[in-house]
Each structure stands twice: as C-alpha cells, then as structure tokens.
Amino acid sequence: MSISDDVILSWTRVLVLLLGMGWAAWMDHKERRVKNEHWIVWIKPAIFIWALDLMAQGADWTILLTASAVIAYASMSVIGRPSLNDLLRGSKLDLIVTSWYMVSLTGVICGAILYQQSLPLDVLVGNDTTLGALWWKTLAVGASILIIDLAWRLRLIHGGADAKCLMWVAILIPSWSALPLTYSSATVDSIISLPPAISLLMWGGFIFLLIPFILLAKNLSNGNIKKLSDLRLAWHASMMPLKGVVGSHVWLLSSVIEMPDGTTSVHHRTRAPSRTPSDEELLAHVSTLQELGVEIVWVSYKLPLLVFLFPAIIPFVLIGDPMSLFLPLLGL
Predict the structure, then answer these.
(1) Are residues 192 and 154 in the same domain?
(2) Are both 207 and 71 inside the same structural domain?
(3) Contacting residues for 250 by C-beta, under 8 A, at least 6 apart
C-alpha cells in the first residue's frame, strides 16, 4: 500500500512538533527559560516542510513570499526589529533583515492584487479551491501569529517562550489539513474552526484545569489537610520543607506577621505574590521562619505553560479543534 505525500508530511510535522516542543518543555521545567537559539534551530524544519507543502499545492512566487512575510513577522519575537540607527550605521545584519521584510511585503501586495477575485468567505466555506484560496490561507497564518503576539504584549500569555512556541506551531502547522486527525472528523466537517496554534493553547488550558484536582488528591494522600482552613490552599498549593524552598521554582506562601498584642504568628497567603521577590527578600523570609522553628511551609508551584502544551499535543493531533468538537454537543 502506497503512502501519499500528504500523509508523510503530516506525520513528519507531528514528529517535529513532539521533538521541538518536548525539548522546550523540558528546558522550561528545569530552568524556567527557553533560549532563542532553540526556536532558531527548530524553525528550520518547520519552514522546510511548509515550503514543500506549498510547492506541492502549486504555490506561485507571491504565495511563497507571503509565507516568507509571515515568518519574518514571527522572527521579530526572536531576533528583534532592525533599528533606524543601526541601518544608518550600515549594520549588515539589519540591512539583510530589512531587505527580507521589503521583498516579502512585495509578495503580499502582489498576491492581494493577483487574487483579489478570491473572497475570504468563499475560502472559509470551501467554495474556492484556486491558488487565491491558498494565498488567503497562507496570509491567515500571519493573523494567528498577530493574535499570539498581541496576547503576549497584553500579558494574556505571560511567558515569552510560550508565545514563541505558539508562533512556531502556527508556522509548522499552518492549517488543519496539515494534521492526521485520526479519531474525529469534527474539525474537517466544521465550517468555522480555530487556528491550530490557538486550539493547542485551548487544549493546554483544559489540561491545566486538572491541576486543582491533582493537588487536592496529593495533599490528601500526604496528610497536608489537617483542618478545614487548609482547603483554602490545598487545591492550588502544597507543603514542602522550608530548607528546600530556596532554589526551587515555587512561591513561598507562608510568612510571619505581627499580631495586635505584639506576638508573631505564621500566616499562609492564599495567592502568590504579584511580584516575584528577589533572592535577598526570599532568604530574609526563610530566615525569619527558621527563627520561629518552622520546618514545613505552604508553597505555590511556578507551573510553566509549555509543560501543559506538550501533553496537549495528543488530543490536538488526534481530535483537532476542541471548539469544533464541543459546540455541536451544545447545539451550536
């Protein structure tokens, strides 16, 4: 039985997605940081696969340059934007990048003129299968990256690594036809579905919702819930030895407060601090607790989003867009 080129490209994308994101999630878990070099390395296979896919669909130079413009926009989050001062000083790198932007923008403009007869609504409902539809679908990847970029700048997506990862996913998987959706045809059958990168973020959010139940079960099994008031913390925090707080990726919720009668008491906050304390401030808090003889404290774990996005790949690849799956169940 022969295997089509589309199937090979689809599963190659899945393999690259697993390797690239798995590595990034591991680094984010261990160091809470993913270097830009990681995305520079893994964007190369994503671009190569996308270029092969576009050429297999008969893309012309305007579509290829439109894809280049999308990649150029995403690259700003990693390599930054060329500055006017550097251009005036004759920086070769900034001149090359600016030239790349201008050439790519030419492709977008020429594509818009060439395919002005193709209407987005016809492309959306599947009535247009010409190269104009392919140009619109390519440009739509840029719209996904714009949404992710705005969410990052508005702090709706907190981590830079999370935003860069989602931009990378948008380029690696530009449309749902790029995935082997094995267990559900809801995404393919749906007229309107979320972009793949946004859908992956939603799946990650669903997995994140399991954390309170996991922490509650963990605290119950470890005997951390000794009184009813502990339930305020048990669903989002856990207990650990005070000596292990420094150097761990946690927020210390236990602190010392002075009572009205002049005595001191240990207080457990229900929320993590809005500002991460400096190392000196943390050491001071730990020292104060040690002076009171405190050995076990409540902490809130700093959970990186990439750790939740990685297992979300499984339903993302096999099922597709969660909204296309759940909305029909609600009669929408």
Answers:
(1) no
(2) no
(3) 240, 299, 300, 301, 302
**Torsion angles phi and psi, residue 288, rounded to 5:** -65, -40
Beta strands 296-301 and 250-252: pairing type?
antiparallel
- Tell me which of 42-51, 199-208, 270-279 is least confident: 270-279
pLDDT at 1: 37
Helix count and strand count (H, E) for the chain:
16, 5
β-strands 250-252, 238-241 pairing: unpaired
**CA distances, 138 to each of 58, 62, 69, 76, 216 (Å):** 13, 10, 10, 18, 45
What average pLDDT does the chain have?
88
Domain co-membership, 157 together with 248: no
Are residues 317 and 232 part of one domain? yes
Using one digit for the tens of pLDDT, what is the confidence trace for 261-313? 667 778 888 887 777 777 788 888 888 888 888 888 888 888 888 999 999 99
Rounded Cα–Cα distance for residues 173 and 178 (Å): 6
3-state secondary structure of 173: coil
217 and 316 in a single domain? The answer is yes
What's the domain count of the chain?
Answer: 2
Q: Helix, strand, coil shares of the chain as percentages rounded to 5?
A: 65, 5, 30
